[in-house]
Each structure stands twice: as C-alpha cells, then as structure tokens.
Amino acid sequence: MSLKSKRLGTLADIYQSENLDGTIRTIKLEKIEPAENQPRQERKKGIDELASSLRTDGLLQPIVVSKGRGEDHYRIIAGERRYHAAKSLGWLEIECKILDRPEKEIYKLAVIENLQRENLSPYEEVDALLFLKNAHGYTDAVLGDLFGKSRSYMSEVLSIAGMDKAEIAKCRSYNIQNKNLLVQAAQAAKSGTLENFLEMYSKGELKTVRDAKDFNKKTKEPNPTPSRRIPAQYKLKRSGNSIMIQSDDEILLGEMLKYLKKELSKKFGDSANT
What we know:
This protein has helices at about 5-15, 45-55, 80-90, 105-115, 120-135, 140-145, 150-160, 165-175, 180-190, 195-200, 210-220, 250-270, and strands at about 25-30, 30-35, 65, 75-80, 95-100, 235-240, 240-245. By secondary structure, it is α/β, with parallel strands linked by helices. It has a five-stranded mixed sheet. The chain has a two-stranded antiparallel ribbon with strand order 6-7. A hairpin with a 6-residue loop joins strand 3 (about 65) and strand 4 (about 75-80). Helix 1 (about 5-15) runs antiparallel to helix 4, helix 2 (about 45-55) crosses helix 3 and helix 9 packs parallel to helix 11. The chain is rod-shaped and about 115 Å long. The N and C termini lie far apart (about 105 Å).
C-alpha cells in the first residue's frame, strides 16, 4: 500500500462508525455515478494522462464509493478522475472500496481525500473548506484539527474567500496558483491595492511570498504625518500710530499683508487700499 493510501485510510478511520463497511469489491461502471457535489471543479482535467497510466500500470488504488440512489448503485466519494479514465479506456468494471456513511459525511471525505493527494487548486480548496465550514458550522480551529493544520493556517486560507468573484477571477487570469501568494493577494484586495499587486506580479516584481508580504506591509503603513511648518520669527515695532512688522519670511509677510488689507477694507472701504 502506498504512503498516500495509508494516509487516506487513517483519515477515513477518524470517521469510522458501526455502519462503515470497508469492503473492497469490483463493481460495474454502469452502476457507479459521480457525486453531485465534488471539491474538484475541473473534474476531467488530465484524464488522458491518467488513462495512459491506467493502461500501462493498471489501477493502483481502488476508488472510494458509497451507496447510491438504487439498491445496487454507488456514488463516488474519491477517485472520479480514475472513474472517467477507466470509462475512456472502455473498462466495464473497476475496483472500489465501499463506505457506508451518513450523507453529510460524504463531501467531507471527498475533501479530505483530495487535499491529501494535493489534487486541489487553492481556489478549489478554499471553496471546499468554506462549504464544510458553513454546512457543518465548523470553527477555523475545528477545521484545522480535521486536516492537521493550525487555526491560523485555516483563517489565512479562508481569507481568500473574502475577495469578491471579480477579484478572484483577476487572480485566476494572472495565473496565481501558489496558495500563499493568493493569501497575500486577498490581503491586498482588503486594503484596496489588488490592482497594484497584480501589476507588480505580472512584471515579476513580486516573485516570492516574502515580496508579496513586503508589498502589503508597505501599503498598510500609515502615511507619515506631514511636517508642520515652523512659524517664522517676526518682530512688531510701534512708532507713534504706526506698527512695523519685521520678518525674514516673505511668504508670511505677504499673507499678513493680505489679511490686513482685507480687514481694513471691511472697516474703511476701498479708501483703505489707497
């Protein structure tokens, strides 16, 4: 048994119940159907390559199914791509591991299997985790326990879901497939700098996650407080009925002169300007 098979078996055992069958048997493909909800959005991606592998090496690991709608029909929990590849080769049957599980557990097991195999894109992973969080009312900490991750990791990944559909579509168009970079893109979107983030990414200026973190750190820093103009020094001299203002700051003298003219005009009219 491969290491991945052992990992899948271990996590499946977490949810083992009295109704778990676990039988491995060969089932006709016509009696198997894909699940309506599946974490993989591109269900048939890479089918040709997988079919070539099946033709050469055979099925190395059975697909995982549960009881379907009919008495002798089954629904795929994990291994839908292997199912489609087998059909493309004209196979009539395939080896399956049958799990007798409650309905609400089916999607959970499908997510676990795909995440273990690292078959999900970051976009698919976020959608799947968000579905589990909402459907089961899980906290980020509980989700982390299910998948052997920390609460902070789950919170970071789920922050991607904070972007709207248009922003996520832009990230896809720039082919951001690194999960950690996508988390940083979500942070940029939150601060309103996603456009700049994507522009710099496309130019190769954000090559690493560290680059992206530095970008977000700079954009989060508050704008420096503008330096206040130090009041200019001035002197007032009084000679009889006259007041003399002395200062080396010409701008200040100009502003004071305008102010005095304005006030004198209010009091004496146009004659004050003569």
